[in-house]
Design brief:
Blueprint (H helix, E strand, L loop, with lengths): L1 E8 L4 E5 L7 E4 L13 E9 L2 E9 L12
Antiparallel strand pairs: 1-2, 1-4, 2-3, 4-5
């Protein structure tokens, strides 16, 4: 799946990812970021997992035009 980081709380280590045409944002934990240097507005790819707290993003990576240069996570 793809989306955009729309919120991030550095002190608590979590944030939200929004998707085009989807009303509900997806929660993510900083430990699931596989890249560094992401910020609010970064485009990301991720998997989802259903937990007792709802749907969460896993294996988050940056979407970059040139795949050989991976953006360095939050």
């Amino acid at each position: 799946m793809t989306g955009v980081i729309t919120a991030y709380n550095k002190q608590r280590g979590f944030g939200l990812i929004s998707q085009l045409m989807v009303a509900e944002s997806i929660y993510f934990d900083i430990s699931e970021c596989k890249a560094r240097g992401l910020y609010i507005g970064s485009s990301v790819e991720f998997d989802t997992q259903i937990t007792k707290r709802g749907v969460v993003a896993k294996n988050i990576t940056a979407v970059v035009k040139n795949r050989s240069k991976m953006k360095a996570c939050l």
